[in-house]
Hints:
This protein is α/β, with parallel strands linked by helices. 40% of the residues lie in helices and 16% in strands. It has twelve helices and ten strands. The protein is globular, with a radius of gyration of 20 Å. One of its GO terms (biological process) is homoserine metabolic process.
Amino acid sequence: MSSTAIYHHKKPFKLENGKKLSELQIAYQTYGRLNAKKNNVIWACHALTANADVADWWKGLVGDKYLFNPEEHFIICANVLGSHYGTTSPLNIDPVTGNPYYLSFPEFTIRDLAKVHQLLADHLGITKIKVLIGGSLGGQQASEWAIANTITIENLILVACNAFQTPWGIAFNESQRLAISADRSFYSQQPDGGMKGLQAARSIALLSYRTYEAYNATQVESVNDKTGDFRAASYQKYQGEKLCRRFNAYSYWYLTKAMDSHNVGRGRKSVADALAGIKSNTLVIGIENDFLFPVNEQEFLGKHIPGAEFHSIKSAYGHDGFLIETDILTNIIGNFLKESANKKIVKLHKIA
């Protein structure tokens, strides 16, 4: 059983930069039922342009007969702040002006996204999460929420993410924003503003999500005499158009800025010290040929989170492997959770 809902937070929401939204709405989706002990919560944090329907975009890991099964777990995924899939975003009406925010929307950080998750958890009466999991932007959210220590997180699973956004990642995001801002319609104050720029931005992003090998395997030409109309060129255009049909340039602009803000050491003693404060049983998974979030970034997380278990996997899809290699992820995560449960049983026996 799945359910889609919107939580209306009627109080002002203060962002990390001190600015406020007069109120906030959070779109979220749940699967299954919360048990009597309220200890079967699986909370999934989604990536850049995904939505709250985690059983759709993480099919193979979440859903009937998969590792995270609604028959056993109460699964939650909340649409992030700034995304236009129901949560407050730049396309929402600014109550001060009566018009959509567009580029007057306040900037926000990954830490703000984690704070929004906590608001929803409080609303739902959830005080303990059995598994908090996220990949890419979702992993950044999950790490910040775990460090905030505002809720009990038994198991934390971080996939293809990092402790802070690197110059490499920021450069990719800025290149995409340059493409968007080069489209004059981005400043038109219209819902479809910047769409040509967004198409170009997605083409840039795709190069960081996939690999040289993947393009050679799927986009190679079958003949040698072509001088134009190449498969790879058509593929880039198609992927850009595909995103434009379901997303908007303003949300993309703000969410990439939020990714750039990610640094768990900000306002704290250090990055390492912040990670050392994570109390959850932690599993970190990296992808060996991830071009955007190189595996050394996950190795860093595994090294500095106390007792963390680290695994790397191979995928022809590069960064996108965290969405595609669900069989491998199921095996690694399943074994980790079994070991975690066994450790918990042993600990209880010792206490008894």
